[in-house]
Design brief:
It contains 16 helices and 13 strands. The chain has 404 residues and is α+β, with helices and mostly antiparallel strands. It binds 3-methylbenzoic acid.
Length: 404
């Protein structure tokens, strides 16, 4: 990373490193350290976009939705000059005022009050899954057996979509999150199959497909009441199917990896099962399953001593902000005694993850079920990363547990 001579207020640290290269995606922390050290705002020369990696800077930009908009897309593509590959999300890729009605509807449907009824059912489902896995043995791949199995068991049912075709959900989400980045090897790999996955996902959003009593049904009921329009409803269901599967799979992978590599934390959790909630948020801070999103400037904006011109893309490094030692002492450590609230793993401000209560309930249910039966957790081989332009994920996690 090089720093141009700070002559004027326009001097800007610049790097030719590629944050979307296989090497950086596999191990992003060294790059993120260089990014934070280079300055508040850094130009990613290769893509002609800006980047932020420090906690205060990222947080302030996320809170400034008027200066840093989302409706030009939160990927590298500027929707004002290039057509998006799918109709934009009414939540993620929207700004006030259009953003507000869908957001209000979804935040009620996915809020803590609405989830109270689901909690005992999901705990029973998690206990049952853990029993089933342990019946097969005490060595397993934690990615397929737990991190993928649990969300796929409970979330599509909670939305109310049919059984048939659910195998499309993970590859759809994986490609969607790749597509926020540049058209690199990951996007090229997924592109030939996305039509099939997207076709299925879009079909499941129709009212006729959706079972009574779930999140999808509640979205369509909001359309009946006039809180949103009938044209908006299927796109809001699509947001659940887009943002609600891969993210929770990788969040659960993150918390399981954290416990497997921090036995002291597992012992603390066994002593006090109420720590499952803080463990989930600390794992989101540590791992940031969603690593990055872009924003677009709506005017010239001065950040520190750098001027970002109007209509530029800025990549917000959520994972880097969550590792900024200016904010987090010993940031690499999974520490159940710290207060991780304030992390930006769910974003911050008006777009902060509307599904986080659902994700938290899933993870807490599963971790609680494991803590009821398992004395200790260890890795029995090197876990392998699953590369994605946006997500930080595991492909495999060979695990052994000791029953209590
Ligand atoms: C946060 C997020 C990720 C991916 C898709 C969406 C949202 C959506 O609303 O479609």
């Amino acid at each position: 990373m090089t720093t141009s001579t700070p002559t004027a207020s326009t001097a800007i640290p610049t790097t030719d490193e590629d944050p979307f290269s296989a090497a950086v995606l596999a191990d992003p922390l060294p790059f993120q350290h260089r990014l934070r050290e280079a300055g508040e705002v850094v130009l990613l020369e290769r893509y002609g976009v800006y980047a932020m990696g420090r906690y205060d800077t990222v947080r302030a930009a996320l809170l400034d939705w008027q200066g840093f908009e989302s409706s030009a897309g939160v990927g590298i593509t500027d929707f004002r000059t290039e057509a998006p590959w799918r109709p934009p999300s009414l939540l993620l890729e929207a700004d006030p005022p259009h953003h507000d009605a869908p957001r209000a509807v979804l935040s009620r449907i996915l809020g803590p009050r609405a989830l109270r009824e689901l909690a005992p059912r999901w705990q029973a489902d998690a206990d049952r899954l853990v029993d089933e896995v342990l019946e097969q043995g005490t060595e397993f791949d934690a990615v397929t057996s737990l991190a993928e199995a649990f969300p796929l068991r409970v979330f599509p049912d909670a939305v109310g979509i049919p059984e048939e075709g659910r195998r499309h959900l993970l590859p759809y989400g994986d490609h969607l999150f790749n597509s926020f980045g540049p058209e690199n090897f990951l996007v090229q790999h997924g592109a030939p199959h996305i039509g099939e996955h997207a076709g299925w996902v879009n079909e499941q959003c129709a009212r006729e497909k959706i079972a009574d009593g779930g999140f999808g049904d509640a979205i369509w009921s909001a359309a009946d009441r006039g809180d949103i329009t009938p044209a908006q409803a299927p796109l809001i269901v699509r947001s659940l199917l887009s943002a609600g599967v891969d993210t929770t799979v990788h969040a659960i992978g993150a918390v399981l990896h954290a416990f497997a590599t921090h036995p002291d934390a597992w012992a603390m959790l066994r002593e006090d099962p109420a720590l499952a909630r803080v463990a989930f948020d600390e794992a989101i801070r540590l791992e940031a399953p969603v690593q990055t999103f872009f924003r677009t400037t709506t005017r010239d904006i001065v950040v520190g001593d750098v001027l970002i011109p109007d209509r530029r893309k800025i990549l917000m490094f959520l994972g880097s902000a969550n590792h900024d030692p200016r904010r987090w002492p010993d940031p690499q450590r999974f520490d159940l005694t710290r207060d991780p609230s304030g992390h930006v793993g769910f974003g911050m401000g008006i777009h902060q993850c509307v599904g986080q209560h659902v994700a938290r309930l899933e993870a807490v249910s599963l971790v609680t079920a494991l803590a009821r039966r398992v004395e200790s957790i260890e890795l029995i081989g090197e876990p392998e990363r699953h590369l994605n332009n946006t997500l930080r994920a595991w492909e495999t996690m060979p695990m052994r547990v000791e029953l209590s």
